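Slide 14.
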Amino acid sequence: MNLNEDMVFDERMLSQLKVHEGFDATMYKDTVDVWTIGYGTNLEVGLTEEEASVLLEMRLRELIRQLATFKAFNNMAMMTPARVAVLTNMVYNLGVRGLLKFENMWRAISIGEFGVAADEMLDSKWAGQVGHRAISLSEQMRTGKWKALD
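Slide 15: predicted structure.
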């Protein structure tokens, strides 16, 4: 008999594995010295592109929720989706603490001075570290329009 995943998969299976494996949000070495995370996910096996995409989407959605709580977003009608994407891209790369260090950029964003915000992005250690990414994202911040992928 050929196994059909839809016939075999059952939510109880998922629940049972969660209980048996336990959850750990940080990497650890399991009982046979294999790097593991979550519900016993073997990190040495790696991820498929599909798994990595799902993880990326989940993390981006959480970062957007976090960004929405920032004071600079109050009353910002000109904060286009493309500009929010710039900040989401940056927070993904830098973390919340790192993004908060861009005080002059945030000040400019809060008053709708997106050209100044773009200049502040380029005038940073981060811009030197990420190169073309910073140039592309600063242009997207400046215009409020999606930059072609390059």
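Speaker note: Residues 2 and 8 are 11 Å apart (CA to CA).
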